[in-house]
């Protein structure tokens, strides 16, 4: 049986390697309209569908003191325009079985749609109109704000939904990358319809935006439609300056203890500074992280779930932004097992230095990563998302086209160098969400303890102990 499993694993590894070595980013055309709008067009005729992304550099990093403004604006764009009401928009897309949605991140906001090739003439003009001229109707805005505030309250009932917001605030402090994308109860309550309109007017502009279209169309025809629908988009004044990098605060080990009085579990993560999305080491670091916590058979999941039964899952990963990013190990455990789970998680993490990654383990991770890579970009929507990322973060085709080569070239010796360079070894930053009274002594073992109650507004510590 063992021989059979080994043989099958070898076949899977070979299949993954072959598939990845053949994968390259499909050909696409780019253009820049006279108004500064960037256009990405990728023809794919395998299915009669078209995926569209209109992405702008208008994320939560620009919220200033109005946390949640970018996110609410991105949702508010979907409330319609003067020409197309929300009801008309919903009816048009629903009737045709099409999808439209939106959202925001730290550095971008986006409207995304997918529809049949034959519906382009009807639905693309509607999408273009709401992006450029949203009306933010007062009655719809009130409902959206109330719903968003309710969702934030509900999210805090599940620590796994909000722990990364606490982590970002701990690491970035008042830096723009620490802005809570979802906002806070008090900040959302103060937002007005006019705030959304002003944010849209300032930051949704052609010279800091891109239209990405992937699917069943002819490039010349689609470019003509984009020019017709978006060529009249105008920006007011000069483009906003690029925001300075948010420095990560990790000069000493700290623990943010988030009290959830009724918690029966402790949810935790720890780590520190990571990498930017365009870092040249981005690809090999995915391989190393796969060994540590990026798959079911990773060190962390094996130790905390399979071998010890302390949790149902454990993992690790990088969160990347334009100028820097963070790294974190994360898991959760029953309240009485908090001390054991944290000790085992931190000990397992330190294996990166105490034991390192041997050649056999590295080869297994390489095969896994290469096998998982092509399915990430199978659909038009996935490819449109990738092109949107490339626009926002500024990395090129080589990160995709040289993926397999970069994975294959990673050696155990190079892995050790990258571990020392990019993984935070000490002065770790930790967030614990659970019953503070029970876990406070445990938290104190890992650094200076800051505390906040989960019911408190926002995600910043209010007191130190």
TrEMBL record:
Keywords per UniProt: Signal
Statement: the UniProt record of this protein carries the keyword Transmembrane: no
Start and end residues of each Peptidase M16 C-terminal domain: 191-367
Keyword Ribonucleoprotein on entry: no
Alphabetical list of SUPFAM superfamilies matching this protein: LuxS/MPP-like metallohydrolase (SSF63411)
Domain Peptidase M16 N-terminal: 47-184
InterPro entries reported in the protein's UniProt record: Metalloenz_LuxS/M16 (IPR011249), MPP/UQCRC_Complex (IPR050361), Pept_M16_N (IPR011765), Peptidase_M16_C (IPR007863)
Pfam families in the record: Peptidase_M16, Peptidase_M16_C
Signal peptide residues on this chain, from the entry's feature table: 1-20
Protein name per the record: Pitrilysin family protein
Annotated source species: Chitinimonas viridis
Origin organism lineage: Bacteria, Pseudomonadati, Pseudomonadota, Betaproteobacteria, Neisseriales
């Amino acid at each position: 049986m063992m021989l059979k499993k080994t043989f099958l694993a070898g076949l899977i590894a070979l299949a993954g390697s072959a598939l990845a070595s053949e994968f390259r980013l499909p050909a696409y055309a780019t253009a820049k309209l006279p108004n500064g709008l960037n256009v990405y067009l990728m023809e794919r005729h395998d299915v009669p569908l078209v995926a569209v992304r209109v992405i702008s550099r208008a994320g939560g990093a620009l919220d200033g003191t109005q946390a949640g403004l970018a996110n609410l604006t991105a949702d508010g764009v979907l409330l319609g325009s003067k020409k197309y009401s929300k009801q008309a928009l919903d009816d048009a897309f629903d009737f045709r079985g099409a999808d439209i949605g939106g959202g925001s991140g730290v550095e971008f906001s986006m409207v995304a749609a997918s529809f049949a090739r034959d519906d382009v003439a009807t639905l693309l003009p509607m999408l273009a109109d709401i992006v450029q001229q949203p009306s933010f109707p007062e009655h719809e805005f009130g409902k959206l704000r109330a719903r968003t505030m309710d969702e934030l309250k509900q999210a805090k009932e599940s620590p796994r939904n909000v722990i990364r917001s606490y982590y970002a605030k701990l690491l970035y402090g008042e830096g723009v990358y620490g802005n809570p994308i979802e906002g806070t109860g008090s900040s959302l309550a103060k937002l007005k319809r006019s705030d959304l309109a002003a944010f849209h007017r300032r930051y949704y502009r052609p010279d800091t935006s891109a239209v990405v279209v992937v699917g069943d169309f002819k490039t010349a025809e689609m470019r003509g439609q984009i020019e017709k629908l978006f060529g009249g988009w105008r920006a007011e004044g000069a483009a906003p300056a690029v925001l300075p990098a948010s420095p990560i605060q990790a000069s000493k080990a700290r623990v943010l203890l988030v009290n959830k009085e009724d918690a029966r579990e402790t949810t935790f993560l720890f780590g520190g500074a990571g990498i930017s999305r365009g870092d040249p080491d981005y690809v090999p670091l995915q391989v190393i992280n796969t060994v540590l916590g990026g798959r079911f058979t990773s060190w962390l999941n094996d130790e905390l779930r399979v071998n010890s039964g302390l949790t149902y899952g454990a993992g690790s990963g990088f969160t990347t932004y334009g100028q820097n990013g963070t790294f974190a190990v994360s898991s959760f455990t029953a309240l009485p097992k908090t001390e054991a789970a944290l000790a085992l998680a931190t000990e397992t993490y330190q294996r990166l230095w105490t034991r390192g990654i041997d050649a056999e383990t590295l080869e297994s991770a390489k095969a896994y990563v290469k096998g998982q890579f092509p399915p990430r970009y199978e659909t038009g929507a996935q490819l449109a998302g990738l092109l949107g990322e490339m626009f926002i973060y500024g990395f090129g085709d080589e990160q995709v086209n040289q993926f397999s080569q970069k994975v294959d070239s990673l050696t155990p010796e190079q892995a050790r160098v990258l571990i020392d360079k990019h993984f935070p070894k000490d002065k770790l930053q930790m967030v614990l969400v659970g019953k503070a009274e029970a876990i406070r002594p445990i938290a104190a073992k890992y650094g200076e303890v800051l505390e906040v109650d989960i019911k408190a507004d926002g995600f910043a510590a209010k007191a130190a102990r």
